[in-house]
Write a structure and sequence with these properties.
By secondary structure, the chain is mostly helical. It has one domain. 72% of the residues lie in helices and 5% in strands. It has 7 helices and 3 strands. The chain has a 3-stranded mixed beta sheet. A hairpin with a 4-residue loop joins strand 2 and strand 3. Helix 2 runs parallel beside helix 4. The longest helix has 39 residues. It is elongated and about 70 Å long.
Length: 238
């Protein structure tokens, strides 16, 4: 069986669960964001102003806060030291905008303080970029070689498995990075008087929903890793 032609087991145990988990996580994010985006923060700060206030309070002076296009495209770029907020969150003064801005500021603070999981995740980015493109190709070619009893079959499959393992490791390391950023965000918002205590539950709902997307990514990556290992075991004696 070619890996590029998934069998029913792949569809039932990997593709479909991954799709459903991803859709569920995205639905939670959109629902929480829509709700919080309709609630204006009492301080009236925009996401950009909230992010800048948090960075200033943390002593982070070399990070630029700037808008970027798209919906929920907010991110912190450690190499460029730029905190990019989607237009809606950059200019908006809702609890959703403030919460997401605070979360991305948490990543900038992690970077400034040399938070090890963030450094490790950044180091794995090039491997995952290559792995996402080549892992399934390596497994497919390797299994074809194993089926033809070629000596390089098993090593090629193992390379693919290692790439899948690296991608899973990346998603696993991402979890503490994201949860720590959210934890920093919630604490900093209150400490700096950007939101009040009674506004925190709504902000937390947005951040918790966003974190589910990373949990979904980790589960999906694990499903793929387990599947290719089982696939390898099925063909290793061919």
């Amino acid at each position: 069986m070619g890996f590029w032609l998934p069998d029913w087991q792949y569809m039932v145990y990997v593709a479909l669960p991954g799709l459903l988990i991803g859709l569920w996580a995205q639905a939670r994010v959109h629902s929480a964001f829509r709700r919080a985006s309709q609630i204006r923060s009492r301080r009236g700060l925009t996401g950009a102003q909230a992010a800048q206030s948090i960075l200033d309070a943390a002593g982070i002076r070399d990070v630029e806060v700037e808008p970027t296009s798209g919906f929920l495209t907010d991110h912190y770029h450690p190499l460029e030291k730029r905190l990019r907020l989607s237009e809606e969150n950059y200019r908006g003064d809702s609890l959703a905008a403030v919460g997401i801005a605070a979360h991305e500021s948490g990543h900038a603070i992690q970077h400034g303080h040399g938070y090890f999981p963030l450094m490790l995740r950044s180091a794995l980015v090039p491997v995952c970029q290559v792995g996402s493109s080549l892992a399934w190709i390596a497994v497919a070619i390797g299994i074809a070689l194993v089926a033809s009893q070629h000596v390089f079959g098993k090593p090629v499959v193992l390379v693919g498995i290692l790439l899948y393992a690296a991608m899973f490791l990346f998603t696993l390391i991402t979890l503490p990075v994201e949860y720590n950023a959210s934890s920093r965000a919630l604490a900093t918002l209150v400490e700096n008087g950007i939101v009040s205590q009674d506004e925190i539950p709504e902000v937390r709902r947005v951040l918790d929903a966003a974190a589910l997307t990373y949990v979904a990514a980790a589960v999906t990556a694990l499903l793929h890793l387990v599947y290719v290992i089982l696939l390898y075991n099925r063909h290793r004696d061919d």
